[in-house]
Specification:
Length: 155
């Protein structure tokens, strides 16, 4: 898994989809010739910020399938977060296995509430098991991951 090379802030003007504001970006270099799966966490002033839905899935999860070995510049770990001067931001870039990536991908897809009837299309099963009642499937995924962190105080 790649380490975060740099973290920085940019100001973006208002668009049809996003409000104007300061946002955080990171750069990293994906290792060549190996499959890598990434998951990003963004903390603002010590608070974990996440809105799992189909619209943020591509912000929070990525496979290097289309950029294996490439240099990634300007990755925005969460497009729904705007910042103000004095905010402290911590970005965690977490390496996932393919199975963990698939689990998180399905979880975000099904928790987005995209339809009138919000029934999951299929049960999501992680690698956590209920040992006393095996016919009940808990929601969860146990993993150990490599993590790279970068911190920035917004100016």
């Amino acid at each position: 898994m790649a380490a975060i090379d740099s973290i920085y802030q940019i100001y973006e003007e208002e668009t049809v989809f996003d409000e104007a504001g300061i946002r955080v970006r990171i750069d990293y270099s994906d290792p060549p010739d190996e499959e890598n799966y990434y998951y990003w966490l963004l903390y603002k002033n010590g608070n974990y910020l996440l809105n799992p839905n189909p619209g943020t899935r591509d912000d929070l999860l990525s496979s290097d399938e289309f950029y294996d070995g490439g240099r990634i510049t300007g990755k925005e770990p969460n497009t729904e977060v705007t910042l103000t001067a004095g905010d402290t931001v911590l970005v965690r870039q977490i390496g996932l296995t393919e199975a963990a990536f698939t689990y998180h991908d399905l979880l975000y897809e099904q928790t987005g509430g995209t339809g009138f009837v919000e029934t999951p299309s299929t049960p999501i099963r992680g690698n956590v098991r209920n040992m006393t009642r095996p016919n009940l499937y808990p929601l969860g995924y146990f993993r150990a991951s490599e993590v790279s962190e970068a911190k920035l105080v917004i100016q």
